[in-house]
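--- STAGE predict ---
source: upstream dedup step, 1 unique chain passed
mode: sequence only
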Amino acid sequence: MISVLTLVKNREAHLQNLVEGLRRSTMAPHELVIVDMSDVPVAQPVADFPVRLVRLATDGLPLAKARNLAAAHAGSPSLLFLDVDCIPGSDLVSTMAGAMRQRDALICAEILYLTDADTAHQDWSDASLKAAGVPHPARRFPPSGLASEPNFGLFWSLAFGISANAFTSIGGFDEAFTGYGAEDTDFAFRGRDAGHELCFLGGTYAYHQHHGVFDPPLQHFEDICRNARTFYGKWREWPMAGWLDAFEDLGLLTRESDRLTVIRPPTRREICDARRPDWQPY
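--- STAGE serialize ---
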């Protein structure tokens, strides 16, 4: 028995594809819990399994708070957090449930990235998504089964399983992280310190639906700087180093030892220039 948890903010079309993926699953989830942060509330999805729609009215993107709220409404002992941009493969729920019976760990599923055209129509299938999907080069997954991953900085919150007991023992996501960035790495580090293993699960996939990509993510500049300081205060190391380096190269901030100083916010032009072409998967 496994609950699927997702968060949505103004991506209802992506949510519909996620629900459709769950409807096509070889094993239905015990339930789907949706935390809706959209400007206009999403419609109640129709599915042949229970769907709990929880409203969180907010101006920002409080990911830590929203994930904790989703977990608080889940009714099964196993949790599968799934980003709203992800379409679950037909065997993701069953394979993750089996993996969690084998090992009480933080278990990340492999993500294949899609371009804008790959889900523009409704006749997608596991085969078509797998053929179109591109793996991310930063993480290597086994062909099948579980592989222990010693680098907790590679924890991926896009699609991960965890027992409700382990989630509680870690203390959930730290809501001192507000908005976008670093809350997932902090969660993984606290999981490590609580004695939980990080594993990568191969042989099953979640397919990441395309959305506008900014590299570096200048649209989240304020959140990233604030959360980087919070993270450094806890762990004495800087998270999101590639993004902070890019911000520094643009003259937006400086870092000296334990201090991050914002020089100026990005301009609208810089944000627009950071947007990647739609044919790039990530």
